[in-house]
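User: Predict the structure for this protein chain, please.
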Amino acid sequence: MIPIVEISEYKTLSPVYEKDEESQVDINLKNLKLNDEDQDLKNYLKQKNILKVIELKQGLQITSTSHIGIAQFSEFSVMVMPKVLMNSNNLPKLIEYAYELDDIIIPQSEIKFETTNDLLVEIILASFIKKTQQLFKQGLTKSYVTHQDNIPYLRGKLLLQQHFVNTMHKKLQFACEFDELEYNNLENQIVLFTLERSYFITKNDSIKKEIRKLTHQFSAFVEKAPVTMSDFNKINYTRLNQQYEKVHQLCKLILSSTGIGDFYKQKTPFVNSFFIDMNMVFESFVARLFKEYYPLSSKAQKGKKAWETDNGKTLQIRTDILIYDNNKVKSIIDTKYKKNISEADKFQIGFYIHEYDKTIGYAILPKHKDSRDYPLRSIEQGITINVKYIDIDEMISLLYSENREQIKKQLENLIQI
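Assistant: Here is the predicted structure, written as structure tokens:
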């Protein structure tokens, strides 16, 4: 069995460590090394600020960030577990709630998981499979795709330059540009790309079987095409394609967690790593809590024009959560997945407060054993940042016991109405 190095977030392990006191897992980094085929994965993880693996004269030094997950190298694996959660069994529940995967249930007795991270990965993949199955039964969306081709009849717009070339070569065809309604669009290409990627991630045979079936179904209508993270921004969800939004959210989560690379040309080594940024998980978790349980309405990830450049372009700021009262911004909330806010965080939140013409803003952080709520007051500007801590384990317990009133009370204690 390949040895697993277990490390918590924001921690460094060196060969001098014989045991990680927090995880109680034996660490012997002196005997570990990277092979040639591991270099691309090592460089990718460093570039994305996910995990830093440094080769020393004897052994390795490993440094983690806010990303949790697993990286599988040739001779060992590195597993990064959350540091903030007191109960690691709550991690899958946190992911489920943050990404609205409540209708996905994987009985642990049916799937053999070696680690909590295996469970996490399979829950996300099973969620994606189920949503894709529902999408296929509901019916795939067609959209107009632009084609340029030489055809025996005039269709759409005539491309004069190419048509003159055809005439010179006595090619009796029209050079045309036309739109055709078809399934081979970006919406479906994203799903197919993610299906094929997921097949190499899952360790579960039943999920592999379902992926093969769905891949075959999509391939009958959709051509394989490489996908990048920027492709998600090209899709505008309307009444005609609204059913894709939840599926694409899971696609984005899976692809961002594994790295995309040149997957169809088989040059990427990144299917042997899966990481999730806990900053994003915590933000989504808190945003959904306020959306569903806070008495006033809230909106997440709201953009606002704040800067103007020399060429007339504007730059936006994006707050994590805005609380509204009668369509007016009442409270500004920024989530920070860390023990304490930094100097940069103070200036960032202070700028948000100034731009929305408020005097108070909130920073919500995950609770730990030494945490306490406290205010930060600006002497000159007359603004206050209230730093608040939320107990993730307690909130998850309340969520799964469906104690709505207690959740509401907890949120009201965080942000006073």
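The chain has four domains: 4-84, 92-141+186-278, 144-182, 294-414.
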